Amino acid sequence: MPLAPIPADAFTKIALGIDRPEDVVVGKDGRVFASDHQCAVAEIFADGSFQRLGPRGGAPNGINMDREGRVIIANFGIYDHEDGPLQRFDPATGKHEILLAEVEGRRLTASNYPVIDAAGNIWCANSTHAETWPKALDGRADGFIFVLRPDGSSSVAADALKFPNGLALSADEAFLYCAQTSGADVMRFPVLPGGRLGAGERYGPVLGNLQPPDGPQHPAETLGYTDGVGMDAEGAVWVCLPAANKVVAILPSLEVVTLIHDPSGQTVNHPTNVTWGGADLKDLYIGSIRTGYVLKGRSPVAGAPLVHQR
Questions:
Q1: In what order do the strands lie in the sheet with 271-277?
Q2: What is the pTM of this model?
Q3: What's the burial of 98, exposed, middle or buried (CB within 10 Å: 0-12/13-18/19+)?
Q4: I need a labelling partner for 180 at 20 to 30 A (CA). Which of 113, 243, 248, 264 fits?
Q5: CA 73/CA 87 separation, integer angstroms
């Protein structure tokens, strides 16, 4: 079934006043949580209001959920010149803890987005070791993907990446997809036994231009800086292009289609992640690094259920 574009005015702004809601996660019970720089995580209620939960600290970025309903938080510390560990917050008990602060002796400075597989492995991107995140967008390949296994062991699973960002698993968990922000593309890695990754390759085409450090600048709508990715139930990889105010999808045929585009940025402004929820997994949530709200709308297709939604 062809993916139909979603007009910007089909979305409703919810959680007005939230602070940099990079990502959203929806529990199996329907509870909706979003990242917020004023707390561990914010819960968004059905009427659009929200409540901050847990302590403030660092810069919560990508979030996800385990089967126990605990929120896994990638802390993008470089945003606030702090460490960037992988954290966990339990809404039921209020317990907030650091799961991992370094991998193979490498300090985590910019944990970006976590995803959990059926075996309980937590895969996460550490985007860069640059002093500030804009400096990291010069094309340097100092980012990596790491894994935290259920037995507590961890390792670097893929290295020398160009600002690895959002992650998504295929429905059969045979592949891990990773957006390379300063590569303007998406990489695909085979998932191997034991919480390991095989060699990666580009999945689909380069998705747009990157701004040159000097000389004429490209129009915003042509920019291909990739951020969050999500997998729908039909195998398409949705990719957020924040600088272009756009969300595209890479179909299984590798054709790229534009799903959402708001040139004005009045509604869809710097989208960073897409998340599905609701009984039919067609409630669509979009996070942002620029707005003080989360967007909610309806998706033409369901999202692929994440491990905590199965």
A1: 12-14, 294-298, 283-288, 271-277
A2: 0.97
A3: middle
A4: 264
A5: 5
